[in-house]
Structure formats: C-alpha cells, structure tokens
Design brief:
Elements: E1 3-6, H1 8-25, H2 27-46, E2 54-55, E3 63-67, E4 85-93, E5 96-104, H3 109-112
Length: 119
C-alpha cells in the first residue's frame, strides 16, 4: 500500500487552509475540503507520476504537482465546487510520497518550494 507523509511546511499549510475554510464557509465546508485534500494525497501516494500530475523539476529535482480538483470524484461526501490548492510532492522512498507543500493555485511556487523556498 502506498503511503504519504507531510513535511512540517505542508502541515502548517493544511492547518491554515482548513482554518480559513471554516472561517469563510463553516465547519461543513471545512470537512468537505479536508476530505478532498485527503483524497488528493491518497491519489498521489498511489500514483505519484500519474497522468494528472506534472513534473516540476524547474522547482526542485523529482518534484511533482497535483491540483486537488482532480481528486473530486474520489472524495467522500459532498463535492467541493471550486478547489483552489495544489499539492507539491516527491517520492521519499519506495512506496512513500512526501507532501512538501499545499499551496493556493495563485501562489508562486518558486517562493515556497524548492531550493529557494521551504520544502
């Protein structure tokens, strides 16, 4: 079974994302978005170089990105209408993916991922 782990910056990203989701749209929306994020993480763990993932070697060697909207059909519960986050991840070991960051789609990944950013 493929697994994933979260880097410390990714943990902080998720905390901020879910707190913002609850503050803006309520606890039910937070639960839906959390389920979507978890589905996206399971998806990249199971298929790190899948067809909907992008290689991001320009940011860091071996780095990939995956927009969470691609996991909407795999998320339990009600559908999230407009997901806006991207997972940045890499293979940490055989069968293990490390989620380096979870960033808003408008964020400049150069500032947050790779050699110059954290993760």
């Amino acid at each position: 079974m493929a697994r994933f782990r979260l880097s410390d910056p990714a943990k902080a990203d998720l905390t901020a994302i879910l707190e913002t989701s609850e503050a803006r749209w309520g606890s039910a929306a937070r639960r839906r978005y959390r389920a979507l994020l978890a589905a996206a993480m399971r998806r990249v763990a199971a298929e790190p170089a899948g067809p909907l993932s992008r290689r991001r070697d320009e940011l860091a060697p071996g780095l990939y990105s995956f927009h969470v909207r691609h996991a909407r059909d795999e998320s339990a519960g009600d559908r999230v209408a407009n997901p806006v986050h991207i997972l940045y991840y890499r293979a940490a070991a055989p069968g293990l993916v490390e989620i380096a960051r979870v960033l808003h789609e408008r964020a400049d990944p150069v500032r947050h991922v790779g050699a110059e950013g954290e993760g």
